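Entry
Fold in token form

___
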Amino acid sequence: MSAATATKARTVKPPQVKPQQPLFIGGRWLDSVSGKTFPTVNPATGEAICQVAEGDKADVDLAVKAARKAFEDGPWPRMSASERGRVLNRLADLVEQHKEELAALESLDNGKPYRDAIAADLPLTIKCYRYYAGWTDKIHGKTIPVDGPYFCYTKHEPVGVVGQIIPWNFPLLMQAWKWGPALATGCTVVLKPAEQTPLTALRLGELICEAGFPDGVINIVTGFGETAGAGLAAHSQVDKIAFTGSTEVGKLILQAAAGNLKKVSLELGGKSPNIVCADADLEVAIPGAASAIFFNHGQCCCAGSRLYVEKKVFDKVLDGVSEQAKRIKVGSGMDPGTEMGPLVSAEQFQRVNSYLESGRSQGAKTVVGGQRAGSKGYFVEPTVLVDVKPDMKVVKEEIFGPVVVAMPVSDMNEVQAAANETTYGLAAGIWTNDIAKAHTLASQLRAGTVWINCYNIFDAALPFGGYKESGWGREMGHDVLELYTETKAVCVKL
């Protein structure tokens, strides 16, 4: 596994959680209009952590109005670019000051190991805010020579009020991926965190007040996708919707956004191929292939869930990945020795187990795992399946759990065709010592990210997104700034 071991011997301090968590709208903490709440659950035990305000369409409307007022009349879009950068940097500093608390809160609410959260999620989150703080005064237009006595130039202006809906697998990091570029460009935001994992988003609401964001620039509405999420996607005063989640829900978001033709960006599902060539360094490729699927319990949109291995080394790679799976310590994320926590919810637990049952019924063989781990909580054993066929559900559909299907291939032509035989196109991995083969295969794969002799390498400067049904647009890097700005052409007669 790729998790750091520095926290192994330390006891994780449980975070302090308020029993009632309100909404954050217009710089104020408010109960939902309906007065309803819902529990957020510790996936390691199945027990409620606290009650969270259940926002719906009425609350979304209040939040959008607050964001619209902040955009039209407030100081944020009119603030100097460098000052916006300073405020974003203050947020990054505050996240860093509270990183241990936030990592523990993420572990409690999501289930992921604390050691993963503190070693990966928090550093990437902090870097993302700092990266976009640095972009605020570097969003440049162009002067364009045209025929005639005219001076023409372009400028990039914030798109306006942005609705953002994030998933539960990396709550803090997905929040940063969304907030960073939106705030850097001068937009205002209404965030709908996943109902399964709202706690770190709400804690960030407290930190943005400390950082000095004007009222209404950031609003947080907790609630369910069918009500709060749908209301945000369809709202006529939202100029752009940004969604990360499943392809199925992404299509619903797109339909809801059609009313006012708001801009849409989607980072959706994947069924990513991970290819091990016979000439690969197997001492690196085997743990790399295991980490590609088992990191974050397999709850990664880019997880290397289809493992293609050249026949010559298939048995060795299969044995190695299976042995890695057997050694993974499954337990509560708050246990410093845990390497894999529970799935995020009862719904996800049932979904993954239904895929395991489907695989067995269609003839797949379980090499290791395939069962529930323990007697309480939402734990599933790391699982390796073989004897699979391309038409099986476990091969075609996104499981979003610690389940890999391993398949032998005879040559690179076969693996290219098999790897691309999917409706998705988010990511892929290649393990080889042949540089020409690596680049050739990378160019042939229909995927937004191709990792060579590595996997799950992310950086705020590196664009991320998918081909085909894995989404529209790119997160991170310079590319994402185009999704949060309008380009205006100005032409002056001289």
